[in-house]
Known about the structure:
Helix content: over 70%
Radius of gyration: 26 Å
Number of helices: 10
Amino acid sequence: MKKTxxxxxxxxxxxxxQLKDILKTATEKAAVLTKSNSGLDIxxxxxxxxxxxxxxxxxxxxxxxGFYKNDAVxxxxxxxxxxxxxxMRKIGMGNLADDGIKALNRAAExxxxxxxxxxxxxxxxxxxxxxKSILMGSDNAATTYLQxxxxxxxxxxxxxxxxxxxxxxxxxFIWTSIIKKYNSLPFxxxxxxxxxxxxxxxxxxxxxxxxxxxEKNIRSNLNARTSVVLKKVFALxxxx
Length: 240
């Protein structure tokens, strides 16, 4: 019992200097966190991070092969049309099936390019509730919040752009040919897929995936915080 008491008495003195430093750091962090909502626009910082995601990452999708050669976002054959793809390849029309997939990605690339202002506007106008909680959340918390809050209105604005792009890149002609040939095969169930809906949803998924990449980068890489606001806001996250 005496040894135990002696040990408890000696432990505090073993690393007094280190302990003081730890306490000082903790006190400073607590002070910063306490003042974090005073004069610091956390929601504005999150919006800037999301907007940087559009500038730095989503812009990559607008280039030729931005979707088509990016495995993370490449649009593949719709699940319900896998049978169409297999049938086309069995009768030696694999090239047409490949052209169909490429056309979907070309449409997405063109649509995202035309609709970039829509995404920027959505971020600018989004109301971020409990911004501090989002800041201290997971490494894609802001993007997830954006996706949850804006997907429906974004779909409504983005879908017409996709439809125009589908015609612009000739995807409608290619897919009409594919479906026509498939439906002419014996013993198959006729299909008439909504390509616009499919490309719209997949393109939106791709946009959010790319914004996520930049959010994670800002959260983990100090050099990615290229403005005073980003540095101040995400410095709070570093303290969690």
